[in-house]
Specification:
This protein has 268 residues and is an alpha+beta fold. The protein has one domain (1-268): PAS domain (Beta-Lactamase), CATH 3.30.450. The protein has six helices and eight strands; from the N terminus they run H-H-H-E-E-H-E-E-E-H-E-E-E-H. Strands 2-1-5-4-3 form a five-stranded antiparallel beta sheet, with helices on both faces. Strands 6-8-7 form a three-stranded antiparallel beta sheet, covered by helices on one side. Helix 1 (3-69) runs antiparallel to helix 3 (83-98). The two termini are 33 Å apart.
């Protein structure tokens, strides 16, 4: 092959191939960078969403309680120790209508008047419940005795205490609200109000609901953060006792799309 023929061959085949290869490498590098940036943004949004979901669950449980705890009848029936009425309105009904797993009505000295625990394969003991709700009940009674009204709005009708904790070995939202008059016609001694405890577990049905509503799969609660690169997590801090656990979930990744692009571009 003479020099002219070689030049023509280079111009016809080698140069276009080299140019295509360079363009392909630049494109692939750009896709890699874009995918990494997209993953970072997607993961941050996932964490923000999970944090918001759990926060809304806490607020929702407390709001659910007020449908029956801010009520003259509830004050009277609790003072009268009408257990059947409590069962129908502050126990079973809360489970059927709102999905609360546990309801406990406490006297002003924090002794149980009534207790409802939904059937479950994970048996709870009275001690499991007391360890979870007593610090919150103590804190709430102190606020009630001081006539604290911080946090009351048009939507939040009474003060309360809430925590993300474990009841037994199960992660849960635990919320304590006072049982108070809705009309103001019943005089109650500050700090002498009876209390209502609600527990909503954050495993099993909750995880299923989140997976269905927000497209999260394999959501798990654990004491330790995941160590693999395929999962992200959000820390959940308990106030009583002060501790931190995590909720983990698979990362939302653009790598599948990237692999598809790589195949299309014929890169190994």
């Amino acid at each position: 092959m003479n020099r002219q023929a070689r030049s023509q061959w280079v111009l016809k085949w080698v140069l276009p191939a080299a140019t295509s290869l360079i363009i392909g490498c630049v494109l692939f590098g750009t896709l890699q960078w874009a995918a990494a940036q997209t993953d970072m943004v997607a993961e941050a949004r996932q964490r923000d969403l999970v944090t918001l979901i759990v926060s809304k669950m806490q607020a929702s449980v407390a709001h659910d309680q007020e449908s029956a705890t801010v009520w003259d009848d509830a004050v009277r029936k609790t003072d009268a120790r009408d257990v059947e009425w409590l069962r129908s309105n502050l126990g079973d009904w809360m489970h059927t209508y709102f999905g609360h797993d546990v309801a406990v009505v406490l006297s002003s000295d924090r002794n149980p008047i009534y207790e409802f625990i939904a059937p479950s394969d994970n048996a709870l003991t009275p001690d499991d419940l007391r360890v979870a709700y007593l610090p919150l009940a103590d804190a709430l009674q102190q606020r009630l005795a001081a006539s604290d009204t911080e946090g009351i709005t048009d939507r939040v009708l009474s003060i309360g205490e809430s925590d993300l904790t474990h009841v037994g070995r199960r992660p849960a939202v635990v919320s304590v609200k006072p049982i108070v008059s809705d009309t103001g016609d019943i005089e109650q001694q500050p700090g002498g109000q009876n209390l209502h405890v609600a527990v909503r577990f954050l495993d099993q049905s909750f995880v299923s609901e989140i997976g269905k509503d927000y497209q999260f799969s394999e959501m798990q609660f654990s004491d330790n953060a995941p160590t693999d690169a395929e999962h992200s997590f959000v820390p959940l801090t308990s106030r009583y006792p002060r501790s931190e656990r995590t909720i983990s979930f698979p990362k939302c990744s653009s790598r599948i799309t990237l692999r598809q692009m790589r195949s299309t571009l014929s890169f190994p």
